[in-house]
Design brief:
homotetramer; 341 residues; alpha/beta; Rossmann fold; 7-stranded mixed sheet; 6-stranded parallel sheet; EC 1.1.1.18 (chains A, B, C, D); Inositol 2-dehydrogenase/D-chiro-inositol 3-dehydrogenase (chains A, B, C, D); Gfo/Idh/MocA-like_OxRdtase_N (chains A, B, C, D)
């Protein structure tokens, strides 16, 4: 049984997903594509040697009776309309982050999905599919370190030449926001954003780094460093302090070299090799679940919570105050479908 | 394009390969199976929901015009005849180790393949597909540690209840024999086998552990420990000493825990999780290469060299002498096809 | 040349210093002791086989013309008077922490010492003598990680049965306060104290753990965890994030064991083995410097700054606000004598 | 109580010992020195500000009634006569390695000491005083890894410009010979020496590296790499494989740095910082034991065994054969005094 997939948006990430579905993963086939730039859609059909129809726009693709499920990898501001259209068509949809560009947009998707009575939306928070984070969550759930009390985290990029404004929060820290609540199965109640001494390598007009403090409903305290021009590499760290022990996210496996009076191992410099396997697992699990009529990845509700939290982070940064994070009750609809590893 | 595969032998490893081709990998389809026990073949067709014909024996399967390529995962003593039959039929064949149960048998396969004028045989030495060994080889080839002079290796199983006689050499050390010559792109010239103090956990009538010393054409010296009841876990170690530095095979990535006055990470206890990814890569690369009409995995020649070396190890063990390893010149046929990472 | 030392207070730490001066270190001799409990003073003279006079009180000991230098290891509330008396007598004095029990008391000592015109007081902040912290400071000073921007620190005790009230701050975090400003050669400007979810192993009526945030004059931001019932061991962590790299305090050297499916090394459970060498170095360096007429350890000014900072921490904890740390200008007297590694 | 020490030979190591006894250690005083070069003896008396008599030769120094104990740090070929003279004078003597330049010379010292009826000789094998080796021995003795079966060792120098001929064996591997039998409390029965591919950095006319195989009475098998121009640093490795687990000699504690896409820690380049603490402990323990009339360091018997083993290594190297190591029964005199940690 093969899942017939239509892809809306054939930019970098769209092409990556098309390639992995076609050449690496099992059980999916790209049978429809579209892009605001039709030449780009045609090019990928040719390059990947797809047997796929090219649609004039996302709505036409969603409506096509040949399309079983939709992948939304178009420009961020268009996500909301294509996800809503997929819900309206009753088709499973995998949407790259952001689910929508505003919390209100996310909420509209949540409301539409709840009203439709069927969970159809999966959001592309790929860290949940990383072996390291899964092993860390397993360690917590097996009670190896007792009850979590604190987390010490860091998200570091070697550099981020295209970043500006609040992108360290909206584009980098956003991953921490999703993964940490998934890890803890807990929600945030407040956030504080501290601006340390600015690195001389910061982008013009942009603060770098941040120290962000989150509090959860259970009283767990998180300090997370976000440093997007750290110079030395791409490095994601997560330490969970429990009341009987402490667990750290694994370092990527690496050859250990003794050379030039140093004992060393390589640190990655790009996020791609760090999370490439996670992307494969993410899409494979989405295909497998969708073929079974299930849905177990990050939900529209998760996308909404992340969006509300990002907004609170920005307010905390601008006000230099501790900002509460208020969320409505999570619909039971989502609680029952909660993802587990 | 899909590679239509026939599988001879649906025991444990046969079923594993059928499962991964059907559910995990891309580009292959199981369309034919056979087993000495027909019920077992029928069972796997049902369990994996295959659209596959069940053949009365391996020869019938090989002859079927529907079968593009053959996977031999039957009982070891039958490997030679099915591989020879595949060569005779001009079909690509992936054969689990051993290629044949004797060096002479391997040599017959090599001769048949050379005579056929086309490389068709791939042998299942899966360590070559392990990310760790590939990273280690890359480190060597990038000249990060200079010219290799020595290797210190260890192959350790937590325990091996089914082992007897010379199986630590024929079934465990055989992997080291293949991977180290691949790593060094060098051949062995002699072997010596030392028997240390016997562990109290050794199987009845069986020596455990061994310290095996290999010398290569380039004068590289290898010491390799083989210890199949080490109690603590499944652990494969490889350290390459170059003339400017030293490189170690990566430890598997693992959560680091601080608990009960210990800083610790888990060691695997089974070989399956250690090499599960390597099996996936192995079969995927075989499918991909076969679809392109290429062949770049471990060759029949590699299978033959390993078989000759195992024989020398056994003679060295029994005689307690240093035994030379004499090999005929490698046919140019194979040298040109040499696998590269 | 031998430094003739008088020790005021022969409790646990006093006896330790007497023992190391007599049996381990070079260049010092205990020639005078006193204790509020005269039997205890007599006992140590006998146990350590000292050729030492027993004085009726600290003031008599300080006045004795035979005493070259004074060690104050009496009950905390008596430190101030004996240090002031030593200054009045013009004698070098090594005082265990706290220098005085209040910031005002510390300030009186600073003022008296400045007025005396000669630096005589050394305070027992032994972490500055730890090889690990010295190596970390060397790494920073050699510019290996660029300009420091952030510090992530942790002070963890396995348990602390004798602790109550604010002792995690006054008795544990006090060490962090001293060592981090020494490490950074910078001063604090504000502090915030966060109380995470309380561990179920916390002492009755006492919060455990704390997350303490310090800001320095240079804008460096420090987050420090203080967790005195962490269950797993005694563990001091310090990570300095610079603008080009990151450096971690060394883990203590330890045998690495592979056993029972774990790769592990021991974590200490007591602070004594962690800092025993630092104590030896501390007292040896004090003896060596004193014999040369120099003074290069933690000064009375350092003791005063720490006291002011502790007070600010307590206010921050109680108020749940960010509290500024205001210090008068450091007298030039101290700046010239600043300790360097 | 002070041990009055006479030092024969004020070259590099002699000066080091004089300095540490005078400035770092406790309980010893240099009151007599001599050297074949009298100016050198005078210079050290002045530099270290010693209150010491300069003797015309070692024999006069040994005979002096002021000298309680003797340190022999003269040229190797003179060790035997000064140790024998110290025994004849009934004085404790600490002799740097080698105890004598031949096995016969060592045997003459053993015989003289046994005949004297009192153990007086300590040989300077300083690795026994290293915290790392002591921790490793403790791990074995606590039965944490079960019964030792194999050892994998390496002795590596960054380079060794002054080395020639068999010095990698006589000057470097000699340390392994002593420490491994101390670690295992076992004796050697045979040795084999393998010469791997020669490093391009080897000294003219000298083999570098060696792989040396030792067998013990208990059947433990040791492989030890000796590589004195390894380029990357000074590195001593020791892994003990027991029948339930494996233990490694600790790596020296070191700052861990993340920089330039590497996670690294420094490797030492010189043996001095690696074993400086061991030297201090060695001489302090010798002073302490001597003052108590005890003797618990490496004995003359140990020096003799090492000398016999070195001779067997050289024969094994030259003959390329497995050479038995035959030793007379150890006199009970020494067995009773066996060193323990």
């Amino acid at each position: 049984m093969v899942l017939k997939i239509g892809v809306i948006g054939t930019g970098a990430i769209g092409k990556d997903h098309i390639h992995r579905i076609t050449n690496t993963l099992n059980g999916g086939e790209i049978i429809a594509v579209t892009d605001v730039n039709p030449e780009q859609a045609e090019a990928v059909v040719e390059t990947e040697n797809l047997n796929a129809e090219i649609f004039k726009d996302g709505h036409a693709l969603i409506q096509s009776p040949n399309v079983d499920a939709v992948v939304v990898t178009s420009w961020g501001p268009t996500h909301e309309e294509f996800v809503l259209a997929s819900i309206a068509a009753g088709k499973p949809v995998f949407c790259e982050k952001p689910l929508a560009t505003t919390a209100e947009g996310c909420k509209r998707i949540v409301d539409a999905e709840v009203e439709s009575g069927k969970q159809l939306v999966t959001v592309g928070f790929m860290r949940r599919y990383d072996q390291g984070y899964r092993a860390l969550k397993k360690t917590i759930k097996e009670n190896q370190i007792g009850t979590p009390l604190m987390l010490h985290c860091a998200h570091r990029n070697q550099n981020a030449p295209a970043f500006h404004g609040d992108m360290p929060i909206t584009d980098s820290f956003v991953h921490e926001i999703d993964i940490l609540r998934w890890l803890l199965q807990d929600d945030y109640v407040s956030v504080q954003v501290i601006q340390p001494r600015r690195t001389r390598f910061a982008n013009d007009g942009m603060q770098d780094s941040y120290m962000i403090l989150l509090e959860t409903k259970e009283g767990i305290r998180i300090d997370a460093e976000v440093f997007v021009n750290c110079q030395y590499g791409y490095d994601v760290q997560c330490q969970v302090v429990g009341d009987t022990g402490i667990a750290n996210l694994p370092e990527p496996a690496s050859v250990v070299v003794r050379k030039d009076a140093k004992l060393s191992s390589d640190i990655l410099t790009d996020w791609k090799p760090r999370f490439i396997d996670a992307y494969d697992v993410e899409i494979q699990e989405w295909i497998d679940a969708t073929l079974k009529g299930e849905m177990n990845g990050p939900s529209a509700w998760d996308g909404y919570v992340v969006s509300v939290t990002v907004d609170a982070c920005l307010e905390a940064k601008n006000s230099e105050k501790i900002i509460p994070i208020d969320l409505p009750e999570c619909p039971s609809f989502y609680r029952e479908a909660k993802v587990e590893v």
